[in-house]
Each structure stands twice: as C-alpha cells, then as structure tokens.
Amino acid sequence: MGLTDTIMVGALGAVPLAAVGLGSGVYFTAVLVCAGVLNAVAPLASFALGAGDRAAVGRVTASGLLLAVALTLPVVAAMLLAEPALDLVGYDRALTGEIGRYLRAIVWGAPGFLGFAVLRCLFATLSRARIVMVVLLLCIPVNAALNWVLIYGNLGAPPLGVAGSGYASAICQGLMLLGMAAATALLPRHDPIILPWGHRLRPRLAGTLADFRRILALGLPIGGLQALEIGVFVASAALMGLFGAEALAAHQIAIMCASFTFMVPMGIGQAATVRVATERGAAAWQAARRAGFVALALGVAFMAAAAIVFWTMPALIVGAFVATGDPANRAVVTLAIEFLAIAAVFQIVDGMQSVASGALRGYHDTKVPMLIAALGYWGIGFAGGWALAFPLGIGPAGLWWGFVIGLATVATLLVARLIERGRREVRSGWRGGETDPAAAEA
C-alpha cells in the first residue's frame, strides 16, 4: 500500500512526493514503534500455545488490544508536533505545510493499525497467517481506488492532494482491523482462545495488569529496536532533505523499493518468532534452533534475489515512479538509480538482521538486540553516513553507504547471538522453571 501511495503521489511532482515520503516516515516510525511493543503478544501467546495453555493465548491477546488503545494517544501527539518540529529544523515552509496536511489525515488510521498489529500476532500464533495476507491483499485495490478519488478529486470529490493519500491510508488501516476482527468468526467458537467481544475483552483487573507487565517487559525493547531501526532511516531522510527536494524524492523512491523487499524477510522473521517460541513452550529445544536457522536461510535467499533485481534493472524500477524521459526529472532519476545500486549491496544483510531479530524474540531475547541496534544503526551507520555525506563530501550517496555499514554490523552481531542462544538451549535446556517466560528472562 505504501508503494501504491508513492507511485500515485509521484504524479503530483517532487515536492508532494517528498512530503509523503518524509511524512509517511514520521507516521510509520510512531506506529511501528508502538506496534513493536505490541508484537510481544506473538512470542508470549506462542509460548503459551506450545505449553498447551490455550486460554492464556486469548487472555494475552485481549490485553494487547487494550494496550493498543492506550498507545494511540502518543501517536496522535507526535503527529501534531511533527510540523512545527520540522519548521524549527529549517525545512522549507511549503514542504512542511504539505507534510502537516498529510500527517493530520493519516493519523486517523492509528487505532486501526495498532489493533490490527495485535490480531496479526494472534493469527500468526495460530499458524493462520494466510488470513492476514488475504485481508491486506483486499485492501490494496481499495487503497488505490481511494487514492484515485481523494488525491485527484475524481467522482465529484474535492482534490485533496497529499492529504487525500493520508485519508486513503487511514481508511484502509481501519478496514484492516475490521477485516481481522471479522476473521475471528472463522475460528471454532468453543476454543478457549476465542475472544468473544464481551467478557474476554474485560478480563479481571489483576490479570490485565499482569499481562500488561509481561507485554511491556518483552515489548518495550522490541519497540526500542524498531525506533532505532526506523528512526535512522527517517533521520537520514531529514538530512537528505538538506540536499534539496530532488534528492529527497529520489531517496523516497529507493527507500520505498528497499522497504518493499524488506517485507518478505520481516514476515519470515515474524514466523521465526512464532515457531521458535512455540517449540520452546513444548520444550523442543532442537526444533526451536532449527526453526531459527531455516528462517534465516529463507530470508537470505530471497534478499539475494532482490539484490540482483536492484542491481540489473534500476532504470526500469525508477520508471514506475516518475517519467524517466522528462528532463525535469533528470536529477531525481540519476540519484534514484545510484541509491538503488547501493541498496542492492545491503539487501542480504538487511534480511539477515530482520530474521535473526525475529528468531531471538522467540527466545524472549529483546534487550541485547536493542543495544546492538543502537550501536550498529546509530553509533556506526548513521554517524558513518553523516561523515561520508558532509565532512568527506560524498554527498547524498554517503548517507546510503552509512546504511550498508550499519546494517552489516547489526546483522553480524545478531546472527552471532542467535547461534549462541540456540546452542546454549540445545546443550542445557531452558532451566528457568517458570510458567511465565518473561519472568524467567528477568
């Protein structure tokens, strides 16, 4: 859907494309960080499922939905503060005005996005991820149609420009939640996992607070890692804006392509979380280790294929976003092709770090990966990219080479930690003796 938005807004020109690029970066940083916290529902529910406690799966999911409502508030506050913050940084007023219009529209989708994140964890835990895929696939044409109506003012609607794209995304995020809620009707009604939209959404206060603590203990480091990872890309986009709207538009094209391919290893990483946690809940240590490494191999294989595509067909890819033959787009096209060539270099390590991080969540290992992300993304990647782009004078491409350095560092350290965690559990087994894995890790 983000790819659809970028292509359809691209017809409006470089400034609207840059506004949606940076605006969506700000919005999705906020909601994905909060969704990262809620992603703790998956390993907790999967561990309970592996241990045979199906009622706990439903209880944790219900608590996650209540927490999603609470997390909507900081997202809304962040979106309202983004435009004045960009003004203070020194962005062009016309650009920040467009970004503000976009953010005030898309923020209406935050409750739907966060609720969807929780129910996605439930269906992944139950090995029913196909339902999630179907819901999202149905939303793609709806999103395109709403963009066509609201951006350009078709079918009698007023042309809203970038705000129209924001409203289209917000509506689709609400539909995503409704689709997942409707999918619960496909589950057996006698299963204790099921969340009747009555008493199980109002669990006893003591149980809810205990689940909140477990979700936050495991999820806050996940959200922190998400913030560090997404934040470095958003901060780099902010620095890219200092090179002009053309550089920022080219950056948006390349980063959208890299984000598009990243969805596959991210999904494999989520599957690794569920498989590793479920096998650990059943005390199948060797199976948990094998699940993590099978997922890692799948992620690397896909991203190797994506790297070949980026390397061999950059002009064709860029042509899907802007008219490559238009002289007015020459600077955007040249930079976007250069960025895609660099993106081809980091595809494999990007897939490695995503899958390894997901598998480690299955081990309820989230704090050390967050620290690794802080070192790799910011201490090495962002700092290195800034040095290459500005003091060393490489320019916009320097920021992208910073991505390569940072992602390679994080991937290497996370894979090494995954190898050690798997070896340790196979050798000695989990000795926590706790029914609550979060408590055992603490």
Write a concise synopsis of the structure shown.
The protein has 16 helices and no strands. The protein has 442 residues and is mostly helical. It has 2 domains: 1-230, no CATH class; 244-427, no CATH class.
Task: Note down, in words, how this protein is organized.
The chain starts with a helix and ends with a helix. The chain has 2 domains: about 1-230, no CATH class; about 245-425, no CATH class. Helices cover about 80% and strands about 0% of the residues. It has 16 helices and no strands. It has about 450 residues and is mostly helical. α10 (about 245-280) packs parallel to α13 (about 330-360). Residues about 195-200 and about 430-440 have low confidence and may be disordered.
- Count the E strands: 0
What structural class results from the helix and strand content? mainly alpha
Question: What is the percentage of strand-forming residues?
Answer: under 5%
Helices and strands, in order, run as HHHHHHHHHHHHHHHH
Radius of gyration: 22 Å
Unreliable sequence segments: 196-201, 431-442
Number of helices: 16
Mean pLDDT figure = 87
Distance between the termini: 39 Å
Q: What share of the residues lie within helices? A: over 70%
> What coarse outline follows from CA principal-axis ratios?
globular
Please indicate the count of domains.
Answer: 2
Tell me about the largest β-sheet: none
